[in-house]
Amino acid sequence: MASHRVMDKTSWGLIRELRKSIAKGCDDLVFACGGSVPIRYSQATKGHEVPYCNPVALRWDSSNPSALNSHCKLVVPLEPSTSNNFTNLIADMTAAANNNDEENKSDEEYKKALQFDASQFSTNFSPYACEIIDAVAQFLLPEFIEDDDECTAVKAELCNLIVCASPSGAIQGYVDTPRSDSFGSLVVCLPITYEGGQLEVQRNGKTTTFDWAGQASSQPVVKWAAFYKDCKLKMHEVRSGYCVLLTYNLYDVRGNGHLTDHCNVLDITQTPLYRHLRPVFDQSLFLPNGGYLGFYTRHHYPHTSIGTSFRVPENLKGIDMALWECFQALGCHVRLRPVAEFEHGIFDLREEDESEPVKFIGGSFKAFVGPDKYGTMGVVYLFDQWWRPLFGRNLRHSNVNWLNRPGHEEFQMAFTYRNSTEAVYSSCAIIVKVPSYEKRVAPESSDTSTLSIDPEFDDEWI
C-alpha cells in the first residue's frame, strides 16, 4: 500500500514537471520535423491514401562538353541503366568544386561535401506531390508565424544537390542565418546505401538527430528533415558509400484558399469576365458621375466567424474572387461588407417606408449579442457597434446598384425588443465604388497599384 502511494506521488511529480517543461519550453521543442516517403515503381491504385514518390531522376551539366546526355543522368534507387553514371556525377561535381573561387577553396568545411547549385542540375522529385510541404506547413509554420494569420502555406525553393563521399569527415556545426523571406530549410536524402552521416539539428540547447543510413533495398524510401533557419547543423562523417542530398529553402506564403487580392500569378485582364466588363465601364453613359455597385457573394462563407475560418478578402473563391479582382483591375475601390435586414419599427426611420423591412450595410462581420441591461435599447447599442461609414460616407442600401439578390445568411446579432428576443442574419456582399467616367478613361486609372485605401478600411472594423 505504501509503495502504491509512493508510485502515485512520483507519477504526479513527473506530470507536474512535464506540464512545466511544456509550458516553458514548447517553443524550444518544435523546431524540426522529418519523415520518409516510399518509392513506388507503378501508379498508385484508386483510393490510395499513402503519399509516395516515383524513382528520383537527376540530370546535370557535365564539365565535359562532349559528354552525352545519357551519361549525365542518374536514377535513384540506382538502376542498371544509369548506375555507372554515378562516377560521372562525382567527377563533374569535383570539377565544379575546383572551379570555385579561392574563398571556397580555403574553406575546409566546404571541401568535405561536393555540391551543385540549382542552376547546374534538375530533378523530377517534388516535395509537394508527396505531401512533405503540407506536413511542414502544418507542423513548423504555425509556430513560426505565431499570431500572424496572413501566411498559411509553405513554398519550397530548390537550392543544392550535395554528395558526401566516404571518408567525408564531420561537417561541424554552423548557423545558417535566416533571410527575411525564408523561415527554414528542407533536406531530402535519396535512397543510396551508406554508413554514418547522421544529421544533428540543434536549437536553443535542444538537439535532434536524423539517421538516414542503411537503406533497405526491399522498400526504398526518400527520407527528409525540415528545420528553422537559425538551427545549428552538424553532419557526422560518412564512413562508407555516398550520402546524396537535395536541399530547399522554405518560405511562408499565402496558401491555397487565401489568394484573393494577393494572387500575383493571375492576370485577371485575360479572363472572359474582365473582357465582358471592360466595354461596359468604357461607356460614357455608364455611371458617368460615378456610383456604387453591390454583389451578394454566390458562395457560402462563414463570414461572421471572421478571424477563425474566414478572412477578408483572401477566402473569396470562384465568381466572387473573379469579380473582386476584375473591379479592382477596372480602377474601382472594392470592399466586403455584411448586409442585414431589420424589421420595420425597430428604428425611427421616417425616411423609409416602415411597412417593409429595412436593409443596412454593416461595418463589422463580428457576431454580437446585446446585453440585457440595455433592454429595448440593446438594438441601438449593437447597431452602433456593427455599423461603420463606407467610402467615407453614410452609404445606404438604396444608394447601391445591386447586381443580384441576397443568398446565404449567417447569424449576425441578437437583442431584446419589446420583451422578446430578436435575431438578425446577414449576407456577405461585395461593395464597389465606381469612379466617374472621366477618371475611368484617364491613363493612370488602369494602374490599380495607385489606388488609395479608405481610412475606415483596416483591421479595426473586422
Question: Which outline best applies?
Answer: elongated
Roughly what percent helix?
10-25%
**How much β-strand is present in the residues?**
25-35%
Order of helices and strands: HEEEHHEEHHEEEEEEEEEHEHEEEHEEEH
Q: What structural class do the secondary elements suggest?
A: alpha+beta
Write down the overall mean pLDDT: 77
Largest sheet: 7 strands, antiparallel
Count all strands and give the number: 21
Rg (CA only) = 31 Å
> Span between N and C termini?
60 Å
Tally of helical segments? 9
What are the low-pLDDT stretches, counting only 5+ consecutive residues below 50?
A: 1-7, 101-106, 174-178, 349-353, 445-462
Give the structure's gist in a few sentences.
This protein has nine helices and 21 strands. It has helices spanning 2-29, 86-98, 102-105, 132-139, 141-145, 272-281, 318-329, 378-386, 437-440; strands at 32-38, 56-60, 73-76, 114-117, 121-123, 153-165, 171-175, 184-189, 194-196, 199-203, 206-210, 221-228, 232-235, 238-253, 291-296, 333-342, 358-361, 368-369, 401-402, 409-417, 420-434. Strands 1, 4, 6, 8, 9, 12 and 14 form a seven-stranded antiparallel sheet that branches. Strands 15, 16, 17, 18, 19, 20 and 21 form a seven-stranded mixed sheet that branches.
